[in-house]
């Protein structure tokens, strides 16, 4: 199976996991957010609490600072000539997870050391899990590439 097909498959399933609403069977690019004490999920309505707002899912999952931070540190920490491409990709896979955790820790420290309120906590958890998501996504792609290239090396070695 071609590596392009595999990477496209991984990206497609990530896309579906993020944007597909299994309850309604449709793609959703927005979500309702806010603080609600009593929420009716069938009507998507808050019966008591604050007024809820609608936000786009795209910036919640694809945070440019997280993507940039994790990508650059992963590249700088895993690109070594002696390891070869497969070895570097395997190291990159593990490093991307670690850098995602580092990004999450940085976001948590900045937020929880500041003014403590519900809005700040909501943003902190958003950043923390966005950093985790980015690190794990980059790790999956690096892992898939490394596994593919390793299987190609075995095929060439056997012939």
What does this structure look like?
With 159 residues, this protein is an alpha+beta fold. 67% of the residues lie in helices and 14% in strands. Helix 4 packs antiparallel against helix 5. The longest helix has 41 residues, at 118-158. The mean pLDDT is 85.
Which helices and strands appear, and what pairs or packs with what?
Elements: H1 3-19, E1 20-21, E2 26-27, E3 30-33, E4 36-40, E5 45-49, E6 53-56, H2 58-61, H3 64-78, H4 84-112, H5 118-158
Antiparallel strand pairs: 1-2, 3-6, 4-5
Structural class: alpha+beta
Q: How many strands, what sense, and barrel or not for the largest sheet?
A: 2 strands, antiparallel
For the largest sheet, list the strands in their spatial order: 1-2
Molecular shape:
flat
The whole-angstrom Rg is 20 Å
Strand content: 5-15%
Query: Could you tell me the mean pLDDT?
Result: 85
What proportion of the residues is helical, as a percent range? 55-70%
Poorly predicted residue ranges: none
Number of helices: 5
Q: What string gives the helices and strands in order?
A: HEEEEEEHHHH
Report how far the terminal alpha carbons are from each other. 18 Å
Topology, number of strands: 6
């Amino acid at each position: 199976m071609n590596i392009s097909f595999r990477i496209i498959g991984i990206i497609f399933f990530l896309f579906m996991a993020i944007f597909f609403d299994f309850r309604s069977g449709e793609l959703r690019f927005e979500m309702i957010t806010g603080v609600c004490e009593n929420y009716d999920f069938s009507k998507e309505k808050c019966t008591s609490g604050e007024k809820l707002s609608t936000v786009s899912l795209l910036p919640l999952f694809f945070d440019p600072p997280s993507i940039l931070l994790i990508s650059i540190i992963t590249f700088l920490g895993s690109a070594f000539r002696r390891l070869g491409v497969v070895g570097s990709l395997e190291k990159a896979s593990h490093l991307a997870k670690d850098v995602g955790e580092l990004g999450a820790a940085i976001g948590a420290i900045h937020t929880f050391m500041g003014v403590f309120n519900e809005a700040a906590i909501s943003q902190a958890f958003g950043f923390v899990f966005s950093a985790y998501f980015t690190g794990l996504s980059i790790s999956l792609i690096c892992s898939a590439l490394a596994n593919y290239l390793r299987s190609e090396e075995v095929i060439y070695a056997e012939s």
